[in-house]
Amino acid sequence: MKLYKKESVQYVSASLDECWAFFSSPKNLQKLTPNSMGFKITDYDGKSMYQGQIIQYKISPLAGLKLSWTTEITTVRDNHYFIDEQRFGPYTFWHHKHFFEATDQGVKMTDIVHYALPFGILGRILNTLIVKRKLTQIFAHREKMVDQLFNSK
Q: Which InterPro entries is this protein grouped with (predicted)?
């Protein structure tokens, strides 16, 4: 199994408490995801993020392809970091760490995603042709939305 890594860093002009309140709320995921992904939370308990929380989604990463995705919030340390892991979905492996750190430039948000795809060599080809680029687009969209929500005030 080939494991891939995607990392991004963004500074947010807000307090650590404000950032944490926004990013640790599952209901805000849709605000940060491109409309073209057809992202929709189909089931979660409506509570603020906590360890063990299960969140179910529908996504459409490619036109006409609709997928179900279930993640579990496996670790939460308030105002510092949380980790979500795929339990069922399109990846063979998905582990996403979200870090928050107060700095003189604002809150430094660091995301580190490790992922693997099914289908062996075909999965490697799909990563090169589609998946890697799609993840880059999703993170770029999120950065743009965070700038609009927090950094343009």
A: START-like_dom_sf
